[in-house]
Backbone:
């Protein structure tokens, strides 16, 4: 750096050395500054591709400006209609789900699942399992029915047994006694005691 600053100094006796050294450096032309063409392309083809690239980039910029203007216009329309961002989110989700349902991947997955289900229901293992469960259910129903029949029969036998009849007779006898005692007490309350047995006394003075 010190040598360079000394050379740049106009009062230095070596002020001409810098210009002489710079004249020795070759100046790059426009062709040398430009990157070399890729292999397999001529300079004319490269120029054509670069021109086309510039046009495409310009079109992309224009489309971005148009898209931004359309988005602003869309936002103004939604604001005038009273549509909230939540409504837009719901609409986007609904559209996304519809797109998923009509997509090839979803249709393929649905078809695959249907095929698996059909193969499973038609398989011997599935049929045997279903038959076993059906038989188990029938046996359970039959067992419960048999239990109910046995209980009913046992109750009938119990009512027809001598012990139950003796107990029933005792209960009936006790009930008759209670009812009879109640009737007697009721009759005694309605008629005064001894009123019909003794004649009225004559209380006339001698």
Residues:
């Amino acid at each position: 750096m010190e040598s360079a600053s000394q050379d740049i100094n106009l009062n230095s006796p070596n002020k001409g050395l810098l210009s002489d050294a710079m004249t020795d450096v070759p100046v790059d032309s426009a062709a040398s500054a430009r990157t070399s063409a890729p292999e397999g392309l001529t300079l004319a083809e490269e120029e054509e591709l670069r021109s086309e690239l510039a046009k495409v980039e310009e079109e992309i910029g224009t489309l971005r400006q148009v898209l931004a203007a359309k988005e602003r216009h869309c936002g103004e329309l939604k604001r005038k209609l009273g549509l909230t961002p939540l409504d837009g989110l719901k609409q986007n989700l609904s559209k996304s789900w519809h797109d998923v349902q009509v997509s090839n991947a979803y249709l393929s997955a649905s078809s695959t699942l249907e095929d698996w289900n059909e193969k499973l229901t038609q398989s011997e293992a599935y049929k045997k399992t279903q038959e076993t469960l059906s038989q188990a259910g029938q046996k359970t129903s039959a067992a419960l029915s048999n239990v109910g029949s046995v209980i009913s029969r046992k109750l009938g036998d119990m009512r027809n047994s001598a012990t139950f009849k003796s107990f029933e007779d005792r209960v009936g006898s006790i009930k008759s006694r209670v009812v009879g005692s109640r009737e007697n007490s009721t009759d005694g309350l309605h008629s005064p005691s001894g009123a019909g047995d003794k004649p009225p006394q004559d209380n006339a003075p001698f």
